[in-house]
C-alpha cells in the first residue's frame, strides 16, 4: 500500500537508521538470562539472523551489566539495553550497546528526591558520550503516577502521551535529539489512539510501535496487526516489535510476524478487518525476557488460554506476567492477573491480591475467580 510516511527525523542505532523514510526496522528482545553471556549472544545472533535490525537486552543488576561486554564481543547485531529503575547501570553498559531504552514511569520511582530532569540528563550525557541513541519507552501499565493523577481515571491515553511529551521536552532542552518514542498498551485501540495523539503533537519524532503483552500467537499477532495496520495507514511507525509469548527457541517468530505484517501492508493485503473488541475475552501475556524466574510461565500462559476457551464472549481481561519486576503493576488493570515468581504464582483480582499458589495448583483457583466474577456481574445486572 502506498502511504506516505510522516517525515520523522533520522535516528541512527548502530549501523541501522530509523525515521526519515528509511525502511521500518523490526526489533525483538532476548529472553535468556543476560548474565549468561554465551546463551544471550547466541540468541542475539539468532534474532539478528532472522531479520531483527535491533535486539534488546534487559539489564537489572551489576551481574547483567558485567555480561554486556562479552555479549557485544560475541555477536554482530545492533544492541539496545532495557533499563528498569536502576538507570545508573547505563554508565556501565552504554559503551557496549547502540541504544538505551528507559521507561519514564520507572525513572520516576528511583531516587524520588532527585528531579526527573537530572536523571534524564544523566542518561542523555552517557548516551551522547557513548554514541548511543535513546528510546523514551512509555507503557500503559507503568505510567508516571504524577501523570495518571492529572487525568480522569477512565482516561488511559492522556497520561501516556503527556509523559512522553514531557520527556521529549526535557531531552530537547538538554540538546539531545537522537531519540525515538514508544507508547505501548496491551490494547490495540489504545496503542492506535496514543500514537496518533503523540504524532499529532510531535510528528518529527520517530515512533517505535508495539502492542505490549499481546500474548500467544495467533491472538497476539492479530492484536498487533490491528494496531500496526491502522497506524501504518496514517503514515505512523518507524520501527516495530511484535511482543509474543513464545518459548525461547521460537523467539524468531516475533520477527517473522513483524516482517509478514510489513510485507502484507506494502502489498495492500490489509487483513485486520476485525476491530479489537474490549467486550470479549482478552488474555494478555508478556513476551518474557531475562527477568523470567520460572520457564513454566510460558506453559502457564498456554494453559490459561485453554482454561478459558469456553468464555470467548465474556468481557474479561486476564493478564499473565512473567516476573515480579513488572508483574505486580502490569496486572493492575486486568480483571484477573497472574504474575509469576520462582515457585509461586500470585493471583490478583483487579488490584487486590487473592493469594499465591504453586504452579500446579493455580488453574482451579483462577477458574473459581473467573466464575465468581461472572456471577457477580450477573447479580449486579439484575
Ligand atoms: S513482565 Fe517481566 S518477564 Fe515479562 S516481559 Fe515484562 S519484564 Fe520481562
Total number of beta strands: 15
Q: Note poorly predicted spans.
A: none
User: What profile does the largest beta sheet have?
Assistant: 8 strands, parallel
Q: Which cofactor or ligand species appear?
A: iron/sulfur cluster
Strand order of the largest sheet: 8-7-6-5-4-3-10-9
Summarize the amount of helix as a percent range: 25-40%
CATH superfamily of the largest domain: Dihydropteroate synthase-like
Radius of gyration: 20 Å
What is the tally of helical segments? 13
Question: What fraction of the residues are assigned to beta strands by DSSP?
Answer: 15-25%
Q: What overall form do the CA principal axes indicate?
A: globular
In CATH, what is the class of the largest domain? Alpha Beta
How would you describe this structure in keywords?
single chain, 382 residues, alpha/beta, TIM Barrel, Sulfite Reductase Hemoprotein, domain 1, binds iron/sulfur cluster
Amino acid at each position: 500500500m502506498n502511504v506516505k510516511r510522516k517525515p520523522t527525523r533520522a535516528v541512527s542505532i548502530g549501523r541501522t537508521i530509523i525515521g526519515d523514510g528509511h525502511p521500518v526496522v523490526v526489533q525483538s528482545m532476548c529472553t535468556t538470562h543476560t548474565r549468561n553471556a554465551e546463551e544471550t549472544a547466541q540468541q542475539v545472533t539468532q534474532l539478528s539472523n532472522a531479520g531483527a535490525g535491533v535486539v534488546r537486552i534487559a539489564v537489572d543488576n551489576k551481574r547483567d551489566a558485567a555480561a554486556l561486554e562479552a555479549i557485544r564481543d560475541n555477536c554482530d547485531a545492533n544492541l539496545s539495553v532495557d533499563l528498569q529503575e536502576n538507570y545508573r547501570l547505563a554508565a556501565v553498559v552504554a559503551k557496549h550497546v547502540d541504544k538505551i531504552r528507559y521507561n519514564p514511569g520507572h525513572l520516576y520511582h528511583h531516587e524520588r528526591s532527585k528531579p526527573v530532569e537530572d536523571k534524564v540528563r544523566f542518561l542523555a550525557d552517557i548516551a551522547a558520550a557513548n554514541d548511543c541513541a535513546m528510546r523514551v519507552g512509555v507503557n500503559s501499565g507503568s505510567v508516571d503516577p504524577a501523570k495518571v493523577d492529572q487525568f480522569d481515571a477512565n482516561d488511559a491515553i492522556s497520561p501516556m502521551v503527556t509523559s512522553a511529551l514531557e520527556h521529549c521536552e526535557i531531552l530537547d532542552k538538554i540538546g539531545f535529539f537522537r531519540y525515538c518514542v514508544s507508547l505501548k498498551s496491551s490494547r490495540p485501540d489504545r496503542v492506535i489512539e496514543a500514537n496518533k495523539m503523540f504524532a499529532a503533537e510531535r510528528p518529527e519524532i520517530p515512533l517505535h510501535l508495539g502492542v505490549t503483552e499481546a500474548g500467544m500467537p495467533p491472538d497476539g499477532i492479530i492484536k498487533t496487526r490491528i494496531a500496526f495496520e491502522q497506524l501504518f495507514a496514517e503514515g505512523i511507525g518507524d520501527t516495530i516489535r511484535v511482543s509474543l509469548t513464545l518459548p525461547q527457541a521460537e523467539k524468531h517468530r516475533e520477527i517473522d510476524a513483524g516482517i509478514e505484517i510489513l510485507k502484507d501492508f506494502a502489498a495492500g493485503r490489509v487483513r485486520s478487518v476485525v476491530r479489537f473488541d474490549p467486550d470479549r475475552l482478552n488474555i494478555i501475556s508478556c513476551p518474557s525476557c531475562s527477568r523470567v524466574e520460572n520457564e513454566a510461565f510460558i506453559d502457564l500462559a498456554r494453559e490459561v488460554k485453554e482454561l478459558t476457551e469456553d468464555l470467548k464472549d465474556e468481557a474479561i481481561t486476564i493478564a499473565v506476567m512473567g516476573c515480579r519486576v513488572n508483574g505486580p503493576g502490569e496486572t493492575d488493570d486486568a480483571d484477573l492477573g497472574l504474575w509469576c515468581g520462582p515457585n509461586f504464582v500470585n493471583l490478583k483480582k483487579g488490584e487486590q491480591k487473592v493469594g499465591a499458589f504453586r504452579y500446579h495448583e493455580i488453574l482451579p483457583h483462577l477458574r473459581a475467580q473467573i466464575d465468581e466474577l461472572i456471577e457477580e456481574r450477573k447479580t449486579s445486572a439484575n
